[in-house]
Structures are given as C-alpha cells and as structure tokens.
Amino acid sequence: MSPTRHRNRRSALRRWVPRGAALAALGIAATGCASNEYTRLGVPEPITEQADRVLALWQGSWVAAFAVGILVWGLIVWTVIFHRKRSEKLPPQVRYNMPIEALYTVLPIVIISVLFYFTARDQSILMETEEKADVNIEVVGFQWSWQFRYLDEKGPAGEPLAVEGIPGEDPTLVIPSGQVVNFKLNSPDVIHSFWIPAFLFKMDVIPGQENEFQVKVKEGVEGEFAGRCAELCGADHSRMLFNVEVVDPADYDDRINELRKEAVEAEEPVTEQEGEPAPSAEPSPEEAGQS
Ligand SMILES: [Cu+2]
C-alpha cells in the first residue's frame, strides 16, 4: 500500500468519525427517549421489586454479549486490515496450536458457567413464595379469557370475589402497590401463559398443575398496565388480553368494596326466583369493557 493511500484513509476516518458521532447524538436527542430507555435494552420499565432483578440479569447478559462481540469484531477488523494477503507465500499455520485450542474450549465454558450461575441464582429467588402475602389472587386462564379470584375477599355466596372476561371484553385485575401479592395459576383446558410485560415475568398456566409466584409492586407506582396470554392456546389466543390496574392500598380496598357491591347486586334478582343456582360473580358490562 502506498503512503498516500494510507494518509487518505486516515483523513477520511478523521472526517467521518465526528460526523457519525454527531448523527448518533442527534438520533438519541430527536427520539426524545426516557432517561433509561436505552440502558433497559428493549424491555419495559419494571414496576415490581422482582422485575428490577430480571432487568439486572438482562443487562448483565448484554454486557457479557457485547464484551464477546467487541472482542470478536475487533479481531475480525484487525485481521482484515492488518493481515491481508501480501504474497503467494503461505502464512504461518496455527492449526493444532494447543494453547489456542484450549482457550477456545475453556473460555466458552467459563462464559456459560457465569451466565448459568446468575440465571439459576435469580430464578430461585424469583420463584420463592415463602413470604406471607398481603393479597392472594387465583388466576384462571381459559379459552379464551381470564378470571381473577380475590381469595381473601368473600362475596355474598361465600365464594371469593371474582372478575371474569370474555374474548373482546378484557377483564381488569386490580392489585395494590407496596404489598406482596401471591398469584396461583390454574387452567381448566389447555396451557396458557400469564404475562404482564411490566413485571418482566411470565408463567405458564397449566391444567392440573397449580403454579405460583409472588410480586411486590414498588411503592408509589400506580397506573394501568397491559396483560396478555403468551402461549398459543387456540383460535382466539390473541384476544386473551387483560388490564392491570395498580392502585395504592387504600384505593384497593375501595375497589374491592365496589366489586363486592356489584356481586351483591348481581345476586339479587336470582334470590327472588327460588331454587335458581347462584350465578358466578361476573363483571358488569361497564367494568368488563374498561380499557
Ligand atoms: Cu391462552
């Protein structure tokens, strides 16, 4: 390579690197991202204490992947630039080079072991259900909607208060912030998956096997969040949507009382007709249609 070409390449680099950096900065500024949107690497803002742990695991895995990626890309670029074919002479061959072969084997094992250690550690913490829960909710996933049963709250018939959706009318799950909520998952038909993206967590809902997990929404967090089924479970799988409302504990009690009132009202016409079975506590159309 002639010295002139070398110099040209350098000055081209000098021109384009600042332009690229400026473009990247403009891109970040123009998209008006939230402060931590980029460092979250594509996952939603975590709203539970458990979700912070999932986020840290996610970010840690990306750091490891980037470290490997930068090393590999660096080696490729270095080879492409500085080890081009210069003559017909065969370059030194390093096949069966013992230290390098050992490195190829040992390094991936070390990387996998570290990722495995952190995954196993976090998984066992996330699956703990030992803590005494403030609120116990049974989630029934069925083809094709959800029923949420507030196990600590008895309705007029002595049954737990419940909210049930139908496809197209999404039910709303209400949970308090700053309290431990225990979910028990059941299915009468096929496997579903209970997924609230803001929890950064989902769990299968399996017929004949009660799955369980606990979360604590961070204190002060309130709002509406999306929920969905994350397991292809039949024709109307895509309509298995639900809303999650996180409210503060005082509002939670109000919401439960409203639900109880609705359940009592739903019961009334039936008690007039003797001998009729009590209806299941279904949400009123307004409530089921909330979104
Ligand atoms: Cu489903």
Automatic annotation (TrEMBL):
Its EC number is 7.1.1.9. It is an enzyme of class 7 (translocase). It catalyses: 4 Fe(II)-[cytochrome c] + O2 + 8 H(+)(in) = 4 Fe(III)-[cytochrome c] + 2 H2O + 4 H(+)(out). The keyword Ribosomal protein does not apply. Residues 132-258 form the Cytochrome oxidase subunit II copper A binding domain. It comes from the Bacteria. Its cofactor is Cu cation; heme. GO terms for biological process: ATP synthesis coupled electron transport. GO terms for cellular component: plasma membrane. Residues 265-275 have a biased composition (Acidic residues). Belongs to the cytochrome c oxidase subunit 2 family. This is cytochrome-c oxidase.
